[in-house]
Amino acid sequence: MGGSPSIPSPPPPPDPREAAQANADAYRENVNTYISKLPEMAAVENRLRSQYMPQQRALERQLSALDQQSGIQAGLQLERQYGPQRTLEGLRRAYEQSPQAYALNRGLGDQMTRQFAQLYGQSPYGSVEENVATNRQPRPFDFYGTIGKNVSNT
Q1: Taking the mean position of all CA atoms in its chain, how far away is CA 42?
Q2: Tell me: the pLDDT tens digits for 14-23?
Q3: What angle, rounded to 10 degrees, do the helices at 16-97 and 99-120 form?
């Protein structure tokens, strides 16, 4: 192809041996450069590590603390929102599964509360929000309470 005056002929194909030798030489030169620069690079890396590692660790600690705090806040929000129902349901299930274990756990909880009060001189409920500590439930509303009571035929 080519060879006419307007289209120059393509260059000859490269010699595979020469190309392989050139690649091997370039690779060897790169490896030698890497080996010769290794002490400098290690020194720079160690200097940067000693300079920035404490900051990185501090940032990682802060981010971890923020993640943990947001998770706990979300959990507390859910507990504040749905806690009474879920707690009551859990207690009911525990009692249905094993009344003896339920009674034992209640007794152990009361005992731990008394021991805490004796040891620290204050109730453990003092460190908890009041609505969580006492967990007063609203009375169930009787929708049918007045039906049929005030009926008279006269």
Answers
A1: 35
A2: 899 999 999 9
A3: 100
